[in-house]
Design brief:
By secondary structure, the chain is of the alpha+beta class. The protein has 18 helices and six strands. The N and C termini lie far apart (57 Å). Helix 6 packs antiparallel against helix 7. The C terminus is likely disordered. Strand 5 and strand 6 form a beta hairpin.
């Protein structure tokens, strides 16, 4: 059957994809994405933006509730659990990146884990069910981004996780909830009206809300579709629909189910080794290569970074951790000074060091016409000139963690351990690794939520802050 409607073809794929479409490669890549996302999400529960959004979300109550990762005594309505866990995932810009450029996992995984706790347990939701719905959410994002040349480059106007991520979240939730094809289409239409967030909020505490809101709003869209809410039947076909977010939007109907291949089978994910904008990872590797030539007594006179022209990652003197995560200059200087970059590199005490400020004063950026702001083709050169006149230059075309040079499984698991052990005990950490590694064989994925919330702590006698918070917000 040939469909003329792009929107209808998406609904057909969301409804019709089955576990038979999950190749071994897709399953393995999905499990790596899930493990990494859980780790950065657990680490993110220690951030200020997570605590602020959680404090806000506590004013909402419902008969059904889902866990907040790493907080055994805190449960929220599923939409708000998805929201705060999504915020945690993106709170440090440590989550995965796909091509075309977006963070695909953060809007999707929190929704599915929140739903897995509240769906009827007969039949139980299996690990394969989770993997299938996860891939439906990833697939929708990738397909939509392939409809525009603008989406191939590092974004300038809208932040993709709140655009395509919202629709990916809705698609994943629709699949998990077992919506029929018509309601899958309505979920897409509703999600488009929830989509969108400006790039102007990059490098601020608000940016992580884009991922959290994508998760929450996508789930809301699917739930409203379940209740019969209707939207435009051709929302993905129209320039006034989803096309409003991208120039040169040229949507096409999706292939037939019988011959369908998931994009994740063709395009792998980039996994970050430190919590900062993906573009800075080229800078870090090139700076690390140059540093090998330097002696402790060498005095640097000039630092030149040859990078793409990406204005929101051009921050000569970052004043906050979020600005530092979006600064070519800060990443280069930190690598040159310390020989490595970690979570601690973005603490306020590290950002304001006199040694860093001294190096930042010496940095210049150059933009070559052939160095396009595209995560598949960009490169970085770092050139250091010493006071004795010597110059050293190194170039990075593909950093370790990029989809062309993915982290090996050992390093991926070590990243997860380092991140999650800040919140969970070692038995829970190892339990999650084992569960994700055999996810396709798990009969009940509620096991993951049990491990993620952590061990219950002794009750403490505290004053109730619910009324105080409500009074503060609504006064």
């Amino acid at each position: 059957m040939i469909l003329k409607s792009v929107t209808e073809s998406f609904a057909r794929i969301i409804h019709g994809l089955s576990v038979q479409h999950l190749t071994d490669r897709v399953i393995q890549r999905s499990k790596r994405m899930i493990l990494d996302t859980l780790g950065v999400g657990l680490l993110g529960t220690k951030t200020e933006v997570f605590h602020k959004t959680t404090q806000y979300s506590k004013i909402y109550n419902a008969d059904l509730s889902s866990c907040v990762w790493g907080h055994p005594d805190l449960r929220l309505p599923p939409t708000y659990a998805a929201f705060v866990n999504g915020v945690a995932i993106h709170s440090m810009d440590f989550d995965d990146t796909w091509y075309p450029a977006t963070h695909p996992s953060a809007p999707v995984l929190p929704v599915l884990l929140a739903l897995s706790e509240v769906l009827p347990q007969n039949p139980k939701v299996s690990g394969l069910d989770l993997l299938l719905a996860f891939n439906v959410g990833i697939e929708v994002q990738g397909r939509l981004m392939h409809f525009s040349k603008e989406a191939s480059d590092i974004p300038k106007r809208f932040h993709p996780p709140k655009v395509v991520g919202t629709l990916g979240s809705a698609a994943a939730a629709a699949k998990f909830l077992g919506l029929d094809q018509t309601k899958c289409r309505e979920a897409m239409a509703i999600a488009v009206s929830y989509a969108g967030a400006p790039m102007a909020n990059a490098a601020t505490q608000t940016k992580p809300l884009h991922a959290g809101n994508a998760a929450r709003h996508g789930l809301e869209a699917a739930l409203l579709a379940l209740l019969g809410l209707q939207g435009n039947k051709e929302i993905l076909d129209s320039e006034a629909g989803f096309g409003a977010f991208y120039s040169n939007y040229t949507p096409q109907t999706l292939p037939a189910l019988e011959s369908y291949t998931l994009l994740l089978d063709q395009q792998d994910i980039a996994t970050k080794r430190f919590p900062a904008h993906l573009g800075t990872h080229w800078v870090a590797d090139a700076a690390a290569s140059v540093r090998k030539y330097l002696l402790p007594t060498d005095r640097i006179k000039r630092i030149v970074l040859r990078v793409p022209d990406v204005k929101y990652v051009n921050r000569p003197f970052p004043a906050s951790e979020h600005e530092a995560r979006h600064s070519f200059q800060f990443i280069a200087c930190t690598m040159l000074l310390d020989g490595g970059i970690s979570v601690q590199s973005f603490h306020k005490s590290q950002i304001g060091r006199p040694q860093i400020r001294e190096l930042l004063d010496k940095v210049e950026l150059e933009h070559s016409p052939d160095n396009h702001p595209n995560f598949d083709t960009l490169y970085c050169e770092v050139s250091i000139t010493l006071e004795n006149g010597k110059t050293f230059t190194e170039r990075c075309d593909t950093f370790y963690g990029h989809w062309r040079k993915p982290l090996n499984q050992k390093d991926l698991e070590e990243k997860f351990r380092a991140n999650s052990s800040t919140v969970l005990p070692s038995d829970a950490v190892e339990g999650i690794i084992k569960a994700v590694n055999r996810l396709e064989d798990i009969e009940d994925c509620f096991l993951l939520s049990t491990l993620l919330k952590g061990p219950c702590l002794p009750k403490k006698t505290t004053k109730c802050t619910q009324h105080m918070l409500s009074s503060h917000i609504f006064s």
